[in-house]
Amino acid sequence: MDEAAVLEIGRNGIWVVLKLAGPIMLAGLLIGLLIALFQALTTIQEMTLTFVPKILVIFTSLILFLPFMMTTLKEFTQQLYSLIVILG
Predict the structure, then answer these.
(1) What are the domain boundaries of the chain?
(2) Residue 86: pLDDT band by 50, 70, 90 thresholds?
(3) How far are the Cα atoms of 5, 25, 55 from residue 22, in angstroms, in the given order?
């Protein structure tokens, strides 16, 4: 296995991590931004106000994106197994 193959596997691994975590983090970021805007407009500065909506949105997005996440992870794992068979 040469350095290019190792770099390609690493690059693909980072890309898979971004694809898996990206939608969840984006949903959390958007709801956090909306809550911060609501707090700024209403001058309500309650710290616990941010946690419940964020948790609900993140769990909902996990449920929605879980099939996509599992498919992506399964495809990456199959690629790694095929490389192990080829190189081994």
Answers:
(1) 50-88
(2) confident
(3) 25, 5, 16
Enter the pTM of the model.
0.80
Task: For residue 31, count other CB atoms closer than 10 A to its CB.
Answer: 19
How far is Cα 62 from Cα 79, in angstroms, rounded to an integer? Answer: 24
Q: How many whole angstroms separate alpha carbon 13 and alpha carbon 6? A: 10
* Residues 23 and 65: beta-carbon distance below 8 Å: yes
Distance set, CA 15 to CA 8, 18, 24, 78, 86 (Å): 10, 5, 15, 15, 22
28 close to 52: Cβ distance less than 8 angstroms: no
